Amino acid sequence: MRFDIISVLPDLLQSPFAHSILQRAQKKGIAEIHVHNLREYADNKHKSVDDYPYGGGSGMVMQIAPFAACIEKLQAERQYDEIIYMTPDGVTLNQEIANGLSSAENIMILCGHYKGIDQRIRDIYVTKEMSIGDYVLSGGELPAAILVDAVIRLIPGVLSDETSALTDSFQDGLLDAPIYTRPVDWKGHKVPEILLSGHEAKIMAWRHEQQLKRTKERRPDLLND
Ligand code: ADE
Predict the structure, then answer these.
(1) What pTM did the predictor assign?
(2) Is 136 annotated among the ligand-binding residues?
(3) Nearest CA to ligand 1 atom 9
(4) Residue with CA closest to ligand 1 atom 5
(5) Is 132 found in the same domain as 44?
């Protein structure tokens, strides 16, 4: 699976993909992440990619020409399943959407800055608009990194123990059960007896019960859908 991310701050996107599971997925050849510097597609000597909004108002707007040049260059090289614009007014990312995207072959992600991007880029090129939550960040780079992380870990073969993605919170529509490791007793705070019993069926039943309890307490909305 290949991601092409278009950004004015490509350096911001180096570190998030250079560690742990995402790094391993790239080394195994399962995922490729390419970051493109939008300024290289600017058609002026100052490499500026934004301008004042028509109609007035505060903030600058990212112009159509640099995005169009970069997007069309990439589209000439391969077919994209989705061209996603990260924006707080998009559809909120969830596990179901991440699952759906994990079977795509090529995904392009556009990162906005300032006030946002010219609406015509959205109208002409974008196939999905995604938000990572109801709050506003300075740009689309961190949201793009979150989306890429959520999707890559779901591609078969990325996690060494495949069941660990299947038992993630949300994967079955419920939050995860509490987890423990050594020591059994930390200053009087003990691991629940049942987890030490070795009785697999009882442990599974306990975990499911805990998942329901947690979901009911913390995210009752997940049970009502
Ligand atoms: N860009 C700025 N804020 C964002 C958000 N919450 N989700 C996606 N992209 C964004």
Answers:
(1) 0.95
(2) yes
(3) 87
(4) 88
(5) yes
